[in-house]
Amino acid sequence: MTNFMFISASVSKMLPDDYTGFTFFVGCMAMMAASAFFFLSLNQFDKKWRTSVLVSGLITFIAAVHYFYMKEYWGEFQESPTFFRYVDWILTVPLMCLEFYLILKVAGAKTGLLWKMIFYSVVMLVTGYLGETVYKDQAQIWGLISGIAYFAIAYEIWLGSAAKLAKAAGGPVLEAHKILCWFVLVGWAIYPLGYMLGTDGWYTSMLGKGSVDVAYNIADAINKIGFGLVIYNLAVKSQVKE
Fold first, then answer.
1. Rounded distance between C-alpha atoms, residue 140 and residue 219, angstroms
2. Whose CA is closest to 236, among 187, 175, 184?
3. Which of the listed residues 36, 118, 170, 194 has the most CB atoms within 10 Å of its CB?
4. Does residue 27 contact residue 61 with C-beta atoms inside 8 Å?
């Protein structure tokens, strides 16, 4: 087995100016705390909303576990933990797509919408990983495919069938849907930017190169915890209204 697959569970030394390591640690703690909050709040909701809140907890819990290993990897090698980050994303991003489907079920969302969005998310992540790690000399081509898949998700939730279902549902569902859409459009924008800064392509002359691990870590925490809090707020509002 390669060394990066097994990282010592011991606490790695962190220098006072190691802001990347610090954000890995804070991200891990923040998402673990969010997971505890979502899991412990499950009993206050009926079955209709419990699954959505549970998924929110799973998203932050999966991320917290991966952030623990990413922190240790960074402390050991001082390298961006690309492998662990993509494993995290391939598990959590489809779950975030699932959240759209779960809240839109009240408006009659079909499983076809769910599988479509999961397919787009998997294409986005797999092609991004290939371009960033396996086929670096063709990074701009793989990045283009990944970007197309991202915009397909954005189109689906802003203008496609998901948007129409949210409009039909109205009320708290429409409000929550719009906030989640902004998370995808604005919050997820850091990821393609990070991809371009970490690979070579036509964009390198304009953006240059560099690590965006700190930005990734902050964006991950905001996006994943924020997604969950929007779902939690929707569940509370809907239950009070019922």
1. 23
2. 175
3. 194
4. no
Cα 180 from Cα 127, distance rounded (Å): 24
pLDDT at 227: 96
Cα torsion through 30, 233, 59, 29, rounded to 10: 10
Tens-digit pLDDT profile for residues 62-89: 999 999 999 999 999 999 999 999 999 9
Give the 3-state secondary structure of residue 41.
coil
Please name which of 230, 234, 220, 235 lies closest in space to residue 93, comparing C-alpha atoms: 220
CA pair distance 213, 82, nearest whole angstrom: 10
Residue type, 77: F
With b meaning 16 or more CB within 10 Å and e meaning fewer, what string describes 76-115?
beeebbbbbbbbbbbbbbbbbbbbbbbbbbbbebeeebbe
Please report, for residues 10, 63, 127, 186, 219, the alpha-carbon distance to residue 222 in angstroms, rounded to integers and kept in the order given. Answer: 27, 12, 24, 11, 5
The helix-helix angle for 139-158 and 111-129 (nearest 10°) equals: 160
Which architecture does CATH list for 18-241?
Answer: Up-down Bundle (1.20)
pLDDT in tens, 184-237: 999 998 898 889 888 888 888 888 887 789 889 999 999 999 999 999 999 999
